[in-house]
Structure formats: C-alpha cells, structure tokens
C-alpha cells in the first residue's frame, strides 16, 4: 500500500511517501516561497525519486487544520482532488496533532500551537503515552492567556511546541512557570511521515465535502452575526 | 481527426465552475455552482468566504462536468484553468485542482486569462472574424480589446476608475437595493423614465477609456438632495437615468472604436453583457453596418468554465502549456 502524506498548514511544507509503515521518501522545506507553486512539483519529485506512478497510490493523508487558511486550502484541495480522481481513500489528521506527534515517544502532556495573531493561538492539548497520542483538550482558536490558565489547572509538566514564530515565551513562563518545557528546532517542525503513522488506520472522510478545519469564522460572518443579534 | 476535449475549471470569484469543451467550439457540459445567495447579505463578495465555498464544491462540480459530458479523464486531452485575474484565494482552488488532475493523469495543463475566457465564450456560438473588437463589461472590468488574430489581445480602452458593474453596485447600494446591483437596476430602469440628466464622461477627444466614478457621485448627490428636500425618490427614474448614461457612453465609444479600427466583428462579453438596455442599444447602433455583432446567451455572460475551455483551445493548438508550478495570478495582464 503506497501512502502519500501532505502538510501545508503553515510556512513549512512537508510531503512524504510510505510503503505501508516504511518510509520511502520525505521532503520538508521551510522557506517563504509559495506552497501553491511548490507543492505539486514536490509531489512530482518525490514520486519520481522512488519510481511510483500516481496510479500506484492507494491512500492520501492530509493535515487539514488549523493553520494558515490559504496554506490549508492548497494542501486539502490537492489531496481531495487526487484522492477523488484516483478513486482512493482520503484521511485527514489535525495539523496540531501532527506537530505533537514529533513527541509521541515521550510521556505526558504536549501543547502544540500556531500563532493566530493579536494574542490568539490555534492550539490543542495532547497526551503522549506508550507511543500513542490522545486528545486532552480539543483543537481551538483561543487567547493564549486564557488557554494557559486552563493548562495551569492540569498541574502537570507540559511540553510546549510550535513551528510558527511567536512572542509567547514570557507569558508561558509567567503562568506555567517551571512546569513548561520547550521543544524547539527539528522536532518543532511538521514532518509529513508522522501523518502516515497517525492516520493510516483511521476512517476515511467523504472526499467531496471535506474542507479544512479553520476553527474560526470568517470576520464578515462574525460582524454580521453581532449586528443581527443587536437588531433582535 | 477527433477534435480535442478540454476539461476547464474556473474559480476566480464567486462561481465554482467546470466544463468540457470540444474543439474550442462545442460545449459538452457546463456546470456552475454559484455562491450568489451566500454573499448577498454582505452586500458584496467576501473573499475568504468565497474560497471556503470553492473548496467544498470543487470536486463535485468537476465530477458533474465529466458525467454530463459523458467522458472519462482518459478521454480528456488537456486541463485548463483560470490563472487570473481574480481573487487570489479563490483562484488558488481551481489552479491547485487543475494541477493535480494534470499530474495524476499526465495531461497538458493550460493557464487561461479570465477575460480571454469571456471573449471566447462567443466562439461557442459563432466563429470569429478578425479584426475583432470586444467590449468587456463586468463587476471588475470595463475594457475595449482589439484582436487581430486568435490569442492576440490589445487593450485600446479601459476604465480609469470604477468598472461599469461596480458603478451599478454602488448606485444600487445608494438606492437601498440588494446586491448585485446590475439586474435590479436594469429591471427598475425598464419601469422608469430618464428624468435626470446625469453626466456622460467622454474624457478627452479620441480616447476610448472610460470613467464612471463621476456619474456614480452625481447619482449619489442627487439622491441626497432629494432626501434633504423630503421629495419622493423615484428609484425607477433614477435607475433609468443612470443606466442611460452608462449605456450611452459604452455604446458610443465602442462604435467609434469599431469604426476607427475597421473591425469585422464586435463581441460584448462579461457579466454586464446580460444587461437588456446594453444589448438592445448595441444592436441598434450597429444596425446597417457590416460589423457582425455577437452577444453571448445569458448563461455564457456570467462566469463559467465553458468560456475558459473555449479560450484554452487556441493555446492547446499552439502548445502553450503551463508547468506544475503554475500559480494564481490575481493581477494577470491580458496583453503579452
């Protein structure tokens, strides 16, 4: 079974090709260039390198958010179109779980987060135990300060990990103190191969209706809802 | 020899569309999923919302286009997609879907200019005669484009401020009419009379450029004055007077340009070409000339993918293919 995995949720872009649980090739880059330009050539490249044709693919796994709206749509559009046209299953995995999965062989709480600007984050809380991840708090869009107060209630050490640039280091220290540990560098970046390990046995999604998990309404919708609530 | 079959995709604004076109002239299918009702309550297209809806529709629409055309991907000769201009987030959905299909089935990929599509919508109805002049009018464009041969575009006039369709939307807003303004104003104008003498912006002599912001301001000021004086506002008469000014300028400049460049065919394209007053007025002005006038049927006036497939046919025959690094180009120019 040849599995193609794709992540374009944030600035890093990662694609991987696995044969069952065996990695064949993984290609990850972290540059300011455009995922829309780079994704298809990257997939073309990794498949040619290991001599696999599109028709030889048997499953697609994609990180479907949260993250950069545009980035997510590039990955998810490509993944769903490929799965549909090749008539193979599509599996989606949380983009936050993907980052947390870098620490899957540790033990304890892992908070992965992406900067969502103006003091907000996209974040989720996972627990690693015996090579498995379980969700402790669901992925959400929340003010970092409020989120850290909730993390504080766990009273346990928490490993913080983020592939995006942010300015929350001081706030994390103030609220969680020494219970917060940071993982940076290589292990803070999404690696598409982890998608295969997380998603290979998961239930496929309905390809046509699949879209990213944005975890946030469009601003015009928020304003419209506020206005209509006032008028009532 | 069989003529090429092109699968075309268009997602530049608020319609998710796919079509199969044979030989650039025969429509095998034409599927359009519109988001009009979704954006209506916001008084205009919300780009992020448009992108979110495109991704939910894209494979459904392509699937339906293939089914209705009764062709499989193996029988498709090339994949065409609007690369620009348009909303970048919206364009990206179509571009990435098209690239994926081209990659998965090892088919040529063709990037098409949205306006070239609007012009080529007419070739699904009638073969082109060069030199050919196109009046392209929509929510985002007001342009006179001269073509001496297939795939060759020269802009000889364009708007210096608002597009014609944009002026319609702004006037509709000032009259508390729903979005989009074009069809509503066209309907109201039909019921009203031209009682206000709104300005016609001809610009300097010999120019084929347009300007609609002065007209829009004049209309808005007139509405304010009536409101201040507590006089009744006849929306129908304002609509009729506004529309008369827009149509006058569009038709006259188009006529002058057609004469000056000695064209054999005139094409009216883009969303505003659905406007009844414009259609009638163009026909009347060009009556008795040797210039063939073609105005597409209503379903080809608004955004659709059939027009993209028609335009792509020319590029297919010239082997003008894109590579897998094709990107959305929100500000793409039509002139080379």
Automatic annotation (TrEMBL), chain A:
<dbReference type="GO" id="GO:0005829">
    <property type="term" value="C:cytosol"/>
</dbReference>
<dbReference type="GO" id="GO:0002949">
    <property type="term" value="P:tRNA threonylcarbamoyladenosine modification"/>
</dbReference>
<dbReference type="Pfam" id="PF00814">
    <property type="entry name" value="TsaD"/>
</dbReference>
<feature type="domain" description="Gcp-like">
    <location>
        <begin position="31"/>
        <end position="152"/>
    </location>
</feature>
<dbReference type="InterPro" id="IPR000905">
    <property type="entry name" value="Gcp-like_dom"/>
</dbReference>
<dbReference type="InterPro" id="IPR022496">
    <property type="entry name" value="T6A_TsaB"/>
</dbReference>
<keyword id="KW-0808">Transferase</keyword>
<dbReference type="InterPro" id="IPR043129">
    <property type="entry name" value="ATPase_NBD"/>
</dbReference>
<dbReference type="GO" id="GO:0016740">
    <property type="term" value="F:transferase activity"/>
</dbReference>
<protein>
    <submittedName>
        <fullName>tRNA (Adenosine(37)-N6)-threonylcarbamoyltransferase complex dimerization subunit type 1 TsaB</fullName>
    </submittedName>
</protein>
TrEMBL record, chain B:
<dbReference type="InterPro" id="IPR017861">
    <property type="entry name" value="KAE1/TsaD"/>
</dbReference>
<feature type="binding site">
    <location>
        <position position="186"/>
    </location>
    <ligand>
        <name>substrate</name>
    </ligand>
</feature>
<keyword id="KW-0963">Cytoplasm</keyword>
<dbReference type="InterPro" id="IPR043129">
    <property type="entry name" value="ATPase_NBD"/>
</dbReference>
<feature type="binding site">
    <location>
        <position position="275"/>
    </location>
    <ligand>
        <name>substrate</name>
    </ligand>
</feature>
<dbReference type="Pfam" id="PF00814">
    <property type="entry name" value="TsaD"/>
</dbReference>
<dbReference type="InterPro" id="IPR017860">
    <property type="entry name" value="Peptidase_M22_CS"/>
</dbReference>
<feature type="domain" description="Gcp-like">
    <location>
        <begin position="27"/>
        <end position="309"/>
    </location>
</feature>
<dbReference type="GO" id="GO:0061711">
    <property type="term" value="F:tRNA N(6)-L-threonylcarbamoyladenine synthase activity"/>
</dbReference>
<feature type="binding site">
    <location>
        <begin position="136"/>
        <end position="140"/>
    </location>
    <ligand>
        <name>substrate</name>
    </ligand>
</feature>
<keyword id="KW-0819">tRNA processing</keyword>
<dbReference type="InterPro" id="IPR022450">
    <property type="entry name" value="TsaD"/>
</dbReference>
<keyword id="KW-0408">Iron</keyword>
<feature type="binding site">
    <location>
        <position position="303"/>
    </location>
    <ligand>
        <name>Fe cation</name>
    </ligand>
</feature>
<dbReference type="InterPro" id="IPR000905">
    <property type="entry name" value="Gcp-like_dom"/>
</dbReference>
<dbReference type="GO" id="GO:0005506">
    <property type="term" value="F:iron ion binding"/>
</dbReference>
<dbReference type="GO" id="GO:0005737">
    <property type="term" value="C:cytoplasm"/>
</dbReference>
<feature type="binding site">
    <location>
        <position position="169"/>
    </location>
    <ligand>
        <name>substrate</name>
    </ligand>
</feature>
<feature type="binding site">
    <location>
        <position position="114"/>
    </location>
    <ligand>
        <name>Fe cation</name>
    </ligand>
</feature>
<dbReference type="GO" id="GO:0002949">
    <property type="term" value="P:tRNA threonylcarbamoyladenosine modification"/>
</dbReference>
<comment type="similarity">
    <text>Belongs to the KAE1 / TsaD family.</text>
</comment>
<protein>
    <recommendedName>
        <fullName>tRNA N6-adenosine threonylcarbamoyltransferase</fullName>
        <ecNumber>2.3.1.234</ecNumber>
    </recommendedName>
</protein>
């Amino acid at each position: 079974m040849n599995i193609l995995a794709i992540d374009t949720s944030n600035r890093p872009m990662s694609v991987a090709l696995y044969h069952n649980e065996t990695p064949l090739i993984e290609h990850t880059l972290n540059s300011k260039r455009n995922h829309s330009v780079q994704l298809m050539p990257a997939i073309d490249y990794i498949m040619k390198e290991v001599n696999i044709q599109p028709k030889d693919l048997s499953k697609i796994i994609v990180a479907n958010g949260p993250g950069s709206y545009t980035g997510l749509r590039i990955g998810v559009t490509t993944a769903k179109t490929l799965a549909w046209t090749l008539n193979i299953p599509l599996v989606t995995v949380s983009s936050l779980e993907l980052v947390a999965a870098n620490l899957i062989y540790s033990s304890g709480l892992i908070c992965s987060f992406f900067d969502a600007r103006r003091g907000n984050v996209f974040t989720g809380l996972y627990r690693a135990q015996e090579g498995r991840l379980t969700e402790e708090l669901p992925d959400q869009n929340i003010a970092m300060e409020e989120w850290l107060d909730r993390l504080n209630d766990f009273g346990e050490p928490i490993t913080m990990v983020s592939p995006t640039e942010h300015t929350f280091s001081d706030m994390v220290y103030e609220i969680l103190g020494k219970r917060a540990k940071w993982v940076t560098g290589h292990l803070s970046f999404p690696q598409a191969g982890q998608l295969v390990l997380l998603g290979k046995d998961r239930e496929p999604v309905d390809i046509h209706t699949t879209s990213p998990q944005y975890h946030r309404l469009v601003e015009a919708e928020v304003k419209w809802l506020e206005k209509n609530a006032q008028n009532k | 020899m069989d003529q090429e079959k092109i699968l075309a995709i268009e997602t530049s604004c608020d319609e998710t569309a796919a079509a199969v076109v044979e030989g650039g002239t025969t429509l095998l299918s034409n599927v359009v999923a519109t988001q009009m009702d979704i954006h209506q309550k916001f008084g205009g297209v919300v780009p992020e919302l448009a992108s979110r809806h495109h991704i939910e529709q894209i494979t459904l629409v392509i699937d339906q286009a293939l089914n209705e055309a009764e062709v499989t991907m193996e029988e498709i000769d090339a994949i065409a997609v609007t690369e620009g201009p348009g909303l970048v987030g919206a364009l990206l959905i179509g571009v990435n879907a098209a690239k994926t299909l081209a990659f998965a089935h090892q088919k040529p990929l063709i990037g098409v200019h949205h306006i070239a599509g609007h012009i080529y919508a007419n070739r699904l109805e009638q073969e082109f005669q060069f030199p050919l002049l196109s009046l392209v009018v929509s929510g985002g464009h007001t342009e006179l484009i001269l073509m001496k041969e297939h795939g060759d575009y020269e802009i000889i006039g364009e708007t210096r401020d608002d597009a014609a369709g944009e002026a319609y939307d702004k006037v509709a807003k000032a009259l508390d009419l729903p979005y989009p303004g074009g069809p509503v104003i066209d309907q109201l104008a039909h019921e009203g009379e031209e009682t206000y003498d709104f300005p016609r912006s001809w610009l300097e002599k010999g120019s084929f450029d347009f300007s609609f912001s002065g007209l829009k301001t004049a209309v808005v000021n007139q509405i304010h004055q009536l409101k201040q004086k507590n006089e009744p506002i006849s929306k129908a008469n304002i609509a009729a007077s506004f529309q008369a000014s827009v149509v006058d300028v569009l038709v006259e400049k188009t006529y002058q340009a057609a004469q000056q460049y000695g064209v054999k065919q005139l094409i009216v394209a883009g969303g505003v070409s659905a406007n009844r007053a414009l259609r009638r007025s163009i026909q009347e002005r060009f009556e008795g000339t040797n210039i063939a006038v073609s105005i597409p049927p209503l379903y080809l006036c608004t955004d659709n993918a059939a027009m993209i497939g028609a335009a792509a046919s020319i590029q297919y025959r010239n082997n003008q293919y894109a590579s897998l690094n094709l990107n959305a180009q929100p500000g793409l120019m039509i002139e080379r």
